[in-house]
Amino acid sequence: MKRRDFLNALGMGASLIVPVGRSAWAATTDNPTKQKLVVVMLRGAVDGLNVVAPVADQNYLRLRPNIGLAAPGKPDGAIDLDGYFGLHPALASLQPLWQEKKLAFVHASGSPDATRSHFDAQDYMESGTPGRKSTADGWMNRLVAQLPGTSTPSRLLGIGPLMPRILSGSAAAITLPNGPAATRADLLDRPNISKAFDQLYENHERFGRAYVDGRNAHREVLEAAAESPEMRAADRGAPLPNGFPDDAARLATLMRNDPKIQLAFVALGGWDTHVNEGAGTGQLANRLAPLGQGLAVLAQRLGSLFNDTTVLVMSEFGRTARENGNGGTDHGHGNVMWVLGGRVNGGKVYGDWPGVDDRALNEGRDLQVTTDFRSVLAQVAERHLRLSDKQLEKVFPAMPQKNPGFQLYGV
Fold first, then answer.
1. What share of the chain is helix, strand, coil (3-state, %, to 5)?
2. Which residues pair with 312 in a beta bridge?
């Protein structure tokens, strides 16, 4: 039997990576998985200049006369953030988090590699090694290997149809499909079928460990997905919205009910807006609205756990500062990263802002990258997940600088 067929035969609707030849990590705290991290990857290069728009800069609307956001207070105008930047109106659901100082942005951030290839840029951002294609694993897999505590398959969790690059590596990881099917009982939950598969694979020399770990992770997820009567009462019968908000609510339930889940990854597509991007309304707005709703749902449903959680939103690169002839934008360079969390120094737009006047643009067309995305990730790993400098070097090898010049967390 091929490995792919074997994993499919587990019947769990999940993909699993298990470590080979690794010993369990020694716990150094009473609650080693308390600090959580959720990473949301926007595949296709979201237009950061319309997510957090420099509405006070006259060059912005000069470059984007048709798709630029109107000033705050005008119809479909941006939501004022700090008098200079404005948030896309489709993200109004995140305004309370901004006002509570639990949401921050890092503008003009991204990869130092100049590629405009979606495939290469995503690979570099997920491996954490821009410009290096030979890296075998993803930075979240290396990250979980540096954290204290005992390894479990559910500690590193992905939501999506495939095992993503960012989770691949020697540490255990599991992915669940999108939608409610991920937390439903399946064929192997029938006792007679489960018993037969146990006899066939439980002690198998090659597949035994993968089978046992996979079955345990599946049971763990089913148990964590079950809402208590108190949770159902708190929902007051309100249905979950579709798409990402639905997956975000389910992820929050899993993380709240299963303390073993520490790192999670979700990828969302549809951000390659070459045509008819729109301004305050339109194609981009239709993508951003459920994204914002999902992030707000995640924060709300995590409850007190949100205080110990950081949520990062990132995309492989930004888009051109000038709109194109099709009412859209093309592949660019600098972008904006989103950072949410109960202990984040929010209510601020961080980063060394270079501006969007013609002289400041990268190659005369794009927002510059002034903050390496890895320095943001490293600060989260250091200040939130408590990694040492030595551990950071293993997660982000050959990173030129660790300090981005600002503090996302309090002292």
1. 40, 15, 45
2. 39, 339
